[in-house]
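Blackboard transcription, Thursday session:
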Amino acid sequence: MAINIPNLDSILAAHQALKNQKPLVQCITNSVSVNFMANVLLSAGASPAMVDNPEEAAEFVNFAQGLVINLGTPTSALVEAMQLAIQQASHLKKPWVLDPIAAGALSWRGQIAADFLSFKPTVIRGNASEIIGLAGLGANSRGFDSSNDPAHSVEAAKSLLDHASAVSASGEIDHIVAKTSHETGEKFWLAKIKGGSHFFPLVTASGCSLGALVAAYTSVTDPFNAVVSAHAHYAVAGKKAHLKTDAPGDFQREFINELYNVTADDFEQYLEFSVEELVAA
Amino acid sequence: MAINIPNLDSILAAHQALKNQKPLVQCITNSVSVNFMANVLLSAGASPAMVDNPEEAAEFVNFAQGLVINLGTPTSALVEAMQLAIQQASHLKKPWVLDPIAAGALSWRGQIAADFLSFKPTVIRGNASEIIGLAGLGANSRGFDSSNDPAHSVEAAKSLLDHASAVSASGEIDHIVAKTSHETGEKFWLAKIKGGSHFFPLVTASGCSLGALVAAYTSVTDPFNAVVSAHAHYAVAGKKAHLKTDAPGDFQREFINELYNVTADDFEQYLEFSVEELVAA
Amino acid sequence: MAINIPNLDSILAAHQALKNQKPLVQCITNSVSVNFMANVLLSAGASPAMVDNPEEAAEFVNFAQGLVINLGTPTSALVEAMQLAIQQASHLKKPWVLDPIAAGALSWRGQIAADFLSFKPTVIRGNASEIIGLAGLGANSRGFDSSNDPAHSVEAAKSLLDHASAVSASGEIDHIVAKTSHETGEKFWLAKIKGGSHFFPLVTASGCSLGALVAAYTSVTDPFNAVVSAHAHYAVAGKKAHLKTDAPGDFQREFINELYNVTADDFEQYLEFSVEELVAA
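(Written on the board underneath:)
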């Protein structure tokens, strides 16, 4: 799908399309996230399917509208299922999202993630240090510093656009990069979305589940708008939930409520979003 | 156990027996459901045990009062554990429940489910399309149409009574079929229970956990009454929870509360239940 | 670390150290507990990491400050990961906690637990019957009776001090034993902490997650104080949560809130704690 520059209208249109189409999202993910991720997708308006064994993973891609591959707790069987699903998604030109948890820190999954990159994920989503770590795995590793601030991962994210159509580093302010192609060459873009709550890092699998929501959105809009819309949906629901709570147990419950409840008005009222051209230094 | 026609009194008696006996239910289930299922059983009054490896599954059947086999996210090791547990349950004549998630849609698990059918589950529980899909796997497949309305799955459910003592298709109105044997031949029965909330499909594993609750009830009453009582317990708790909530995060929490809180008075006030003889068309 | 006799001041100091240091705790645990355990650690102030495959388990121990090994739903791959992680923790002299779920009841995991004991866990945590069962697995089995009352497990717990620095049996009143070495020989100690709520047994994985919190505390204080502080943190949060709720769904949420919220004042107000010398009968 051709990449356009997202704005509030394109985000609202994607959100409405998600609600209408209820895309079926195949999740091959870690054991910590599997239940919360399914509930996030259901509340947000999508349909989850955790078909993650090597015997069925590729067959199910035929039915799925989106796919998320999350490296949180890989096992040899899970990795085999991932490989088969990715190959089938590539073959069918279906969108898929790579969430490279800790790929830069642990050697086995680092190899796996580097291999997966060659299959060209539609989107890569991680936190800042994961994006930096993943970029460092490539053949032309540039040795990025590790950091938790997404602003420090923009160069790493940009380098990953060799493999993916859009790359997101989430954090206090989510940073999302993509490029557009023009007759005069490529342009690089950076979208920023202010995250909704400091409680997110205290709810396990909230980042992983955002990756699944990105996969849901990739089935209804172009990759850049998909990543921005998923992060916007998350940030707005998170902000509304945060206003009602002051501890992580309540936040988790209210966040699920608000993923379900958010309206176009909420996006207009709560979303803090900007997009700018990234000019080479 | 001889099958009787359930009524409010038999449901209340089963609920009281569950609370008193706290049956130990072995769950070999999918990764999405494992935590929620355990909490559902605990709140409802049973004791869960997720012993699901091939090394211990059969040994644990010796201690368990009921067993649920759920095909949501099968792995080769999990399937081996299921086979061993089912064989031991058959050998010891302990009740077990088959939840054939997506068995009609995916070929590998379809084979597995067909194999499990030959071990005669006490109860089969699924949604309408799963019951239809499972019935279509048998040697004499009658090619039922796929549908989400349990009313359309009654013929499929009835055909599965060749293998199981009772079959349930859950949905907006749960449909449960069973047969009784008489000197003059067999009679077929259809029980209907109005489900408690449209939020159930937005809480992942709520259907799977109902299958586990059916397994709990099979240890305290006959199979038809067990299925009806478990669905009644669910529907009444769901209706009470629904009255207090308007979003899925809250519903999930209140449902766990109400599974624990429901009283005989609640069954009398909220249960919408009927049973009729099924006459061949 | 040398063992001291815990008191309110040492508990408060450990709690403050946990909040300041946010120790990274590697959890190799059962599938039921994995999500709740991560949220418990996050709310309490630690950082969870569920790195549990054989390819990475030992490598991650290099980064972890504490390790918990939980035998709830072992698989052959998980057990291999546990063995590798335990060996590396022993090699690096990093603290680790053994949670021997059902080790006395099932033969396969009984062998595994007995093998793990030889690697000298820093702490063993279980419920009373698990502590009794584990003690019965040793070469000099003394055939302890099974029981759910921690008071009946004190002799079993004491015998396990041959392998571990501190042993806890949790229940209505948690019983924790440890020994100190003096010029004149050894002294044995028994700490008791009144548990916070009768809803704990209705929230699956609440015991498992306590084991992970013990592992977190072992990285900031000596083993006896670590066990006592983790149990105290749990009991105080549980008591505060219990005051606000009357059903298990609400209790689970409030408990996560209170793990996050508890203050030094709360410990002073709610903790019911005693420690005494254990004199041989």
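Lecturer's comment: Residues 8-278 of chain B form a domain with the UDP-N-acetylmuramoyl-L-alanine:D-glutamate ligase fold (CATH 3.40.1190.20).
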